[in-house]
Design a protein that fits this description.
Spore Coat Polysaccharide Biosynthesis Protein SpsA, Chain A, 2 domains, 7-stranded mixed sheet
Length: 290
Amino acid sequence: MISIIITVFNRQNTVEAAIESCLSQNFSEYEILIIDDGSTDQSADKIKKYLGKNVKYFYQENQGAAAAKNKGVHEANYEYVTFLDSDDIYFSENTLRNIFVLLKKEPDFICTKNILIRKSDSDIIADNKQISSDVDFYKFMLSSPLNYAGHNPYVFKKTLFLQAGGFDVNSKWGDALIFWRRFFKLNPKFAIVTEPGYIYNQIDNNSVSRKRSPEYYSTALDVMLRCYSENHKDIHLFKVEKSWHLIFMLYAIKSKSLRKVIKMAMLLCSGRFYFIPSAIRYLLETKVMK
């Protein structure tokens, strides 16, 4: 019924917990596909003891998280696929069963409203208040480059995931950013789990997505600009381009690149600049730039 794809790169200290959280589920119609993206530590040795009929291991030379996830989807045997990062775990033993209940409605996509974020000093439940049963996901995605479709665990119908082209292997940051806009342009039928389903581990700060250097902001800006270029027509149709331009400006400033700051300032002041106040209001109300 569900193929769980765990991508691994040098996660010898956390990968076992990720696998165990799958094996402890009160649900048996799943397979686990572990995609090792060229680990050089002892991750493979930690994984070996779990291999069997429903747990399979694939090794590839390091190509990045997007390529590893895409490979997992291609290797998946079930109709639905979901992803579990090798340093995260499922919220409870009922996570997959809660998803299975919604799969009876044959959706193309499932997300959750809530996620538990684990920090070194506390656990926080994050609720995405913009996600509801009547949300227009495509318009929501185009309202800001920083909008995401609820929280993990995300579940996709395999055929539609592949139709959208999979995750962007050319992105060193935000490999799903471009994918989300392509996926929801296909107008998928969706369902939402209200209970938390995922524990997002922020105790270990080795993740590239958690490092906030000028290089990080420069790389992120480049990806957002590619996404903007691809969706330019619809972004302007929904009159939300200034939300994008404001975020571009912020990231350009934080990249400490004078060239990018000048370029983004020119973009912000061009076109329908009178939408800037409404864009500021949207960004403040949604706290998308927090």
